[in-house]
Every structure is written in C-alpha cells, then in structure tokens.
Specification:
By secondary structure, the chain is mainly alpha-helical. The chain is about 55% helix and about 0% strand.
Length: about 350
C-alpha cells in the first residue's frame, strides 16, 4: 500500500473533481495506473497540498475553458499559429485536457478530447505518419500525436486507436537513423536531440500500453542522447556541433529518463545544469514552453529536492505569464503555449500514465 501512496493521492484528487467525469472513468483509470505500477518503479514524490494552490487551480480552469473555445469544426488546433491545423498541437491540447481528468467521451470536455482524437486519426497515412497538410518538419508533430494516441489507448483500449498507434510506432522504428536518433523528416537521415526526445516519449508511452518495442531501438536512442551530452552537463543540438542550452538539455535528460535511466552520472550532471535555469532565470531564453515542458518532467521524475525546488518556481512564473483571457503566448502560437503550460501546471495531478516511472 505505501509503495503506491502517490497513486492513491492522485485518485483522491481525481475523485474530488468528479463533477467532470463519470464513475466508469474512475474504474478505467484505476486499472491503468494499477497496471503501470506492475510495469515499473513508481515516482517517489507524492501529491501534497503544497503542490497545488488556489491560484494554480483558477489558472488551469481559465486555460482549459479558453482552449475548449478555440477548437475548429474539424477538431483541430493550430489555426492561431503559422502552422495551421496541426496533429502535434492538437495532440498536446488533448493531453492538457486529459491531465484535468477529461477523457474521450467522458467529462465536461470529453467531447473536445474526442474531436482531437478524431482529427489525429483522420490524418494517419498508410505509412503510419501522422501529419496534416500544413505540417512542417512532420516528425515533431508525429511524436506528440503518437504520445497522445498512446495515452488515449491506455484509457480507452479502442481498437481503431491501437491500429493507428501501431502504425505510428512502426514508422518511428523504421526511421531511426544509424546514430540512434531522429530528425524533422520521416527518413533515415541525420538526427537532433529535440526531435529524438519526441519519439522516445512516444515509444515509452506505447510500450506502457502493450505495443512491442525492441530493446535495441531504445538502446540506440539512449546511446545517441548520451553522446550528445557536453562536459558541463548540458546537451548539444546535434552530435556534430552545438553548445549546451536550456531547452535541448531539458529534452536530453527527459529522453534518458523515459528510456529507463533515472540515476547515474549523466542524470546528475544534467539536472545540475538544468538547475541553473530555475525560473525566472530562463525567462528570456528561446523555446520557453518546449524547454519547461521537458524540464518539469525531468525534475518531476527526479523527485525529492529537485522537484521540491523547481515546482513552486515554474508554477508561479506560469501563473504570472497567463493572459487575462486565459491563454499563454507560445512560440508556436497561443494554443500550443496554453497546452504546454496546462500540462506543466497539472503534473501534480498524476493522471497521465506517461508521468509514472
């Protein structure tokens, strides 16, 4: 019982907000987290009252309401960016909604999640690539959309989701390059740390719900990420060049953790490097939401003093940065920035299986 105390605290939070969901969803959620507990060691930090504040709850509620109102008729998000309708941004919005307890067809915004899912499923090709016509560098969007499908499948076990997810994972496996990474296009070309972590997260989420992933794929990806680490603990963008920077270093640490590496010299050096950028120090650096999306995950999975020190700082900064209308302005548009901010702010809910070890 004590080994899974954090999961039961998460369930208590979930039941407290049961006005959003049906009783049957609680049963499904219990089954999902129970099965993931068998699969591996649980994150050691437990949700506490100190992790959540009234201001945070209000920020999340306003952000969710704003996002729900922006959904296009076809279920997509991304029209408020230069990308247009985008499977990656749509998937991130779906994840933000699920982080608040809304699932396909269940909860106050269950229909919003269902429409996100319908858009992603509609834009799956025979090759497995998930991409709308407006996608630029489609492997970014493919990774986020595949992660969304895996989390949905873990909650619903819909057959059409599994088949699309299986094809999407097959594409990721087939496009891993000789270095062990991935790049913008679905081909075996070069690789960078940023696109690679998107695929690693998708692979981990799919593995968690029963999709077979050969260990050699993860081993190659792990080797690529380790080879990208600099002596200062940060990560370069590509193996051939580049100094350390916050966003890609956060992605590098998260990639190792989702590959199953939670301790060791690479992790400690990386976490120490990230700690230099605790808000508000990183405020003016590029790729703000992308970087904090992965940094929050890295600190959350590291737990203990790392999470205790990082979480109040990023929580406070995100609440401060929210617009009066309820959105956050991100580099890839307001919908993207809002989805990323909401995923970060709701990590203490512990509702998404991907945030479990």
């Amino acid at each position: 019982m004590m080994a899974h105390s954090g999961r039961y605290v998460g369930l208590a939070r979930f039941l407290h907000s049961a006005k959003h969901v049906s009783c049957s969803l609680v049963v499904v959620w219990c089954l999902v987290v129970s099965s993931s507990a068998i699969a591996g060691e649980r994150h050691t930090a437990s949700a506490t009252d100190a992790e959540s504040t009234r201001a945070q709850s209000l920020a999340v509620e306003r952000g969710i309401q704003w996002l729900a109102a922006q959904q296009a008729d076809d279920g997509s998000y991304g029209s408020l960016s230069h990308y247009g309708p985008h499977v990656g941004i749509t998937g991130l919005v779906g994840l933000a909604m699920m982080s608040d307890g809304h699932m396909p067809g269940r909860g106050r915004y269950g229909n919003t999640v269902d429409q996100c899912l319908a858009f992603v499923l509609k834009h799956s090709s025979e090759s497995g690539l998930l991409a709308a016509e407006t996608s630029h560098g489609p492997m970014y969007g493919h990774g986020f959309a595949t992660l969304f499908l895996a989390e949905v499948y873990g909650m619903t076990t819909r057959s059409e989701v599994r088949e699309t997810l299986r094809r999407a994972i097959r594409l990721i496996i087939n496009t891993q390059n000789d270095e062990g990474g991935w790049r913008y296009q679905p081909v075996r070309g070069d690789a960078d740390i940023s696109v690679t972590i998107c695929q690693v997260m998708a692979l981990r989420a799919a593995k968690n719900v029963g999709i077979y992933i050969d260990k050699s794929i993860i081993d190659k990806a792990t080797a690529y990420v380790k080879n990208a680490q600099n002596p200062d603990g940060g990560f370069r963008y590509m193996l051939s060049s580049g100094g350390s920077a916050f966003a890609r270093s956060a992605a590098g640490i998260a990639a190792l953790q989702y590959a199953g590496i939670y301790t060791g010299e690479e992790i400690e050096r990386g976490l120490q490097y990230l700690s230099r950028f605790k808000p508000p120090k990183e405020r003016t650096v590029g790729h703000y939401f992308y970087g904090h999306y992965y940094a929050a995950q890295a600190m959350f999975l590291a737990g203990n003093v790392y999470w205790i020190d990082w979480w109040p700082a990023v929580r406070g900064e995100l609440i401060e940065r929210q617009s009066p209308e309820g959105f956050w302005r991100g580099q890839a548009g307001q919908e993207y920035g809002t989805a990323m901010a909401l995923i970060i702010l709701q990590m203490p809910n512990r509702l998404l299986p991907i945030f479990q070890k």
